[in-house]
Write a structure and sequence with these properties.
Elements lengths: L11 E3 L4 E3 L1 H18 L9 E4 L4 H13 L5 E7 L8 H13 L3 E6 H5 L3 H10 L6 H19 L4 E3 L4 H13 L3 H6 L14 E2 L7 H10 L10 H5 L3 H15 L3 H17 L26 H8 L5
Parallel strand pairs: 3-4, 3-6, 4-5, 6-7
Antiparallel strand pairs: 1-2
Helix pairs in contact: 1-9, 2-9, 7-11, 7-12
């Protein structure tokens, strides 16, 4: 019997809470937690124009389904960026999101790495190897994707960029920043962290307290068919994040709720610093592209790497 409604048969064991839930109560629990996180950190308001950055995967489906249900469709936009990874196409999944967006009257943007930088990710990785650069494909992918999404959001006048990062993603990021002793990035990744440049459109992450397995199950229960293949670069070129992910999953298996408790702890730890707007100065701008760059850098990392592989001259 469902621990929540006490009427329907339970079909899901939510290990971190110890509750047995029916499918209806499980989905309502996810929606309630997402809305609670939005309200807790004032992620966006009714009049805000939101650009949803979607990949077409399960997390994107959950983000789209919940946000389109609580925010006026006329104030929503959707952007999807194709990386161009061989053997890892999400065209069918993306097509569903774009089709549903159009049904709801939501503006859609479909672009790609090739459209913006002239090369697919697989090309950039190949050029990097030939240039003897020890750079992870994930580094290229993350930097270029963020740049594209932010630029579209800024130029089209959106107030917030909404991403589908889940609890697994966010706990890994926080753990990596702690390992590196990078308190600045730990602060920046907090929901109330400072916006370090007027050129940035603030990113918000409503799914940050929802497990990845919960996103997968929510999508499945709603009939969404998503590909189960992981990005091949995670397997062939494992990064620190991949190793941290494996470690955190082992902890979660032994002590369910570990990821959630850890991220809640980090949130509370950093909240005392988020109100000090002067704790970090504004970022300088890159002399090549004019976008924000890191402190003490005249050229941003994106332009530096694209120059080293021969894309920029």
């Amino acid at each position: 019997m469902c621990s929540s409604c006490g009427v329907s048969n339970a079909v899901i064991l939510q290990r971190h809470s110890g509750r047995l839930l029916c499918s209806k109560c499980f989905m309502e629990d996810i929606r309630s937690r997402v809305l609670g996180e939005v309200r807790k950190y004032d992620m966006f308001r009714p009049n805000d124009r939101l650009l949803l950055a979607v990949s077409g995967g399960k997390d994107s489906f959950v983000l789209f389904d919940i946000i389109s249900g609580i925010h006026e469709s006329g104030r929503l936009g959707v952007i999807t960026v194709s990386e161009g990874i061989e053997g890892y196409s999400r065209e069918e999944d993306i097509a569903w999101v774009l089709s549903r967006s159009r049904e709801l009257g939501i503006d859609c943007i479909k672009t790609s790495f090739r459209d913006v930088v002239g090369h697919d990710l697989k090309d950039l990785v190949s050029m990097s190897v030939k240039s003897d650069l020890n750079v992870s494909p994930c580094t290229f992918c993350g930097m270029i994707r963020r740049r594209i999404v932010n630029k579209y959001a800024r130029e089209l006048g959106y107030d917030k960029v909404v991403t589908a990062h889940n609890l697994d993603d966010e706990s890994q990021t926080a753990f990596i920043n702690l390992l590196r002793g990078d308190l600045n990035r730990l602060l920046q990744s907090h929901p109330r962290g400072p916006k370090l440049s007027e050129l940035f459109v603030r990113r918000v992450k409503p799914l940050r307290k929802v497990y990845e397995w919960e996103c997968a199950l929510y999508a499945y229960l709603n009939g969404f068919k998503f590909q189960e293949v992981e990005c091949p670069y995670i397997v062939s070129r494992p990064t620190l994040r991949a190793k941290v992910r494996e470690y955190l999953y082992r902890l979660e298996a032994v002590r369910p709720g570990t990821l959630l408790r850890f991220l809640n702890f980090v949130d509370e730890l950093m909240i005392n610093y988020t109100g000090n707007v002067d704790i970090l100065p504004h970022l300088p701008t890159c002399k090549v592209c004019g976008e924000p760059t890191a402190y003490n850098r005249s050229i941003c990392k994106t332009c530096e790497l694209l120059t080293k592989v021969g894309v920029l001259k």
